[in-house]
Amino acid sequence: MLNREKAFDKLDRALKAYPYAKSDYLVNAMGAYKFKEMFHKQYYGDGAWYTFEDIQIRGPEDYDTVLTQLYGDYMTPPSEDYRNHHSVVEIIFDEGKL
Question: 43 near 65, Cβ under 8 Å?
């Protein structure tokens, strides 16, 4: 069996191996889009604030390049066939049967 603490420690060391200041590229190593999630640091710049619903979030200065690389034509909604593939399932446990 894999030791969880050792695995997390190894992952943490790998993610910290290249300091931000010395790197030209940024990578979401845990992302689902693999190499599509590697960007030159210039696209992020110093970051920018964006309003999302009722909160402010920080994102890349050049969000258009980042979103286009990840999703292609992100401004055109997908056809009905490709929408809402993520469904929510509620599981209710009967505590007397656990």
Answer: yes
